[in-house]
Amino acid sequence: MSGPKVSVYTLTAEEIAAIQQELLHQQQIALRRAQLLQQAEKYQQKIHEQENSLQELEASMPANGGQWVKADTLQSRIKQMWATLSSLQRNLTAMKGLAYSDEQNDEIEQQLAEIDAKLRENNREIHAGYGESADLRARLAKMLDSEIFGLFTAECAPKAANDAGNTAKHQAQQTVRPFVKDSIEKLLDLKDNPYLPILYKQEVAKAVARMKLANEQHRLDAFCEIELPEMLAECQDFLDLWQEIGQEYQDLLLQYETLCDLNGTEKRAAVPFDHAAIAVLKKQIQQEKSKAEAQAQKTYIQQALNEVMEDMGYDVLGQREVQKRNGTHFRNELYQYGGDTAIDVTYADNGQISLELGKLDKTDRLPTPAECSQLENQMLTFCDRFKEIEARLSDKGVIVGNRIALTPASADYAQVINVEDYELKKTRKNGQKIKVTKPKAMASE
Q1: 390-396-398 Cα angle (round to 5)
Q2: Given a cut of 50, is residue 409 above it in pLDDT?
Q3: How confident is the model at residue 314 (pLDDT cuts 50, 70, 90)?
Q4: How far apart are CA 111 and CA 5, in angstroms?
């Protein structure tokens, strides 16, 4: 009863529950980290916005204001604000390298809270700076008025003409129908709406261009009545749906992407935002959770078998990964059994695990008659050992789910294992070298 043994192992309900609990914990940690890093990306955007504001603030300061007023204090504060943003940028970059753990997530959350406080403070400083810059310009203008007032007299006429033009423009605006004015305002609001996806924004941009052309051709009323309503309605339908389920969609999408990252899923479903998106995402999330659980169970079973083999004194000699042309994939582990024999454990992707005895050699060949006889004797000995292996696996919560084959000891199953096909360890655990002997040197356990 000790030829090839092929089985599909499963886990006890208690062990499955423990794995599910551990998976849930890992997924929660990963999801929390993803949420924190998503928040970090928002702070990254705020940093860019403040950098742009600082550049505008520096550009708005009078170039020669120092001749009349002191801007040294503001310039010093601007320099400090640049330094703050640079420091925050470094902190955000460092966060991305932290590992997945509760402790690291706590650290990220604390750092984000500090970043948020500093960004708020920096924002107040920038607004205050704009106020001071405007004050500097006003004071400078007042001094210029008193010292060289005559330079501005030539600008009065153009200014008056410009005021007249503004008045005419204002009067023209009064003749615009309320419906047209409302339509244009809706269109311009959509142009800057952050929730519209790129395809919608492209349509809005095209509509704005057509609106300008319609205005030039004095057919703005027709444009607003005929061309614009359908596009406005489509955008509004999207925004209404986003208001209803947009946040749930974002939360589920982040959860799905996090699970894909944990599972190493490269081919991911594209889930566009629409009425069916929530149901589709929930289905994809459940598939990824099932995939994670199946892989975790498979990993646990393989680790348990490896521990049992080594606890029984069967040291790992080597391993290999095999990918066949038909797509079949499996992994082999070699464990020392006799002096020059080994147990070859094969893990197939379909969950089947097979254990076979074989003689070690450095070539592909058939065993000699003498080797077949001696291997048959070792198979008989291995029979009781296999019962003990499964008993120890049961203690770890690993039980037989489906017995594929449990063949008797027979010379027909004798085989020679070519160690050149494996990635071998140089020594066994006890420090001895791996032993590969010639055909005549067969030993029994």
Answers
A1: 55
A2: yes
A3: very high
A4: 55
If DSSP states are collapsed to H, E and C, what string results for the chain? Answer: CCCCEEEEEEECHHHHHHHHHHHHHHHHHHHHHHHHHHHHHHHHHHHHHHHHHHHHHHHHCCCCHHHCCCCHHHHHHHHHHHHHHHHHHHHHHHHCCCCCCHHHHHHHHHHHHHHHHHHHHHHHHHHHHHHHHHHHHHHHHHHHHHHHHHHHHHHHHHHHHHHHHHHHHHHHHHCCCHHHHHHHHHHHHHHCCCCCCHHHHHHHHHHHHHHHHHHHCCCHHHHHHHHHHHHHHHHHHHHHHHHHHHHHHHHHHHHHHHHHHHHCCCCCCCCCCCCCHHHHHHHHHHHHHHHHHHHHHHHHHHHHHHHHHHHCCCCEEEEEEEECCCCCEEEEEEEECCCCEEEEEEEECCCEEEEEEEEEECCCCCCCHHHHHHHHHHHHHHHHHHHHHHHHHHHCCEEEEEEEEECCCCHHHCCEEEHHHCEECCECCCCCECCCCCHHHCCCC
d(CA 282, CA 252): 7
Query: Is 148's pLDDT higher than 60?
Result: no
Res 445: pLDDT: 38
Percent of the chain with pLDDT over 90: 47
Residue 115, judged by CB atoms within 10 A of its CB (0-12, 13-18, 19+), counts as buried
Q: Per-residue pLDDT tens for 371-392?
A: 999 999 999 989 889 999 999 9
pLDDT digits (tens, 9 = 90+) for 192-227: 788 888 889 999 999 988 888 888 888 888 988 998
Poorest-confidence range of 37-41, 60-64, 189-193, 304-308?
Answer: 60-64
At residue 100's C-alpha, the angle toward residues 34 and 26, to 5°, is 85
Give the integer Cα–Cα distance in Å for 343 and 255.
Answer: 42
pLDDT band for position 176 (50/70/90)?
Answer: low
pLDDT in the model for residue 141: 56
Q: If 0-12 CB within 10 Å is exposed, 13-18 middle and 19+ buried, where does residue 161 land?
A: exposed
Q: Are 297 and 18 in contact (CB under 8 A)?
A: no
One-letter amino acid at 331 equals R
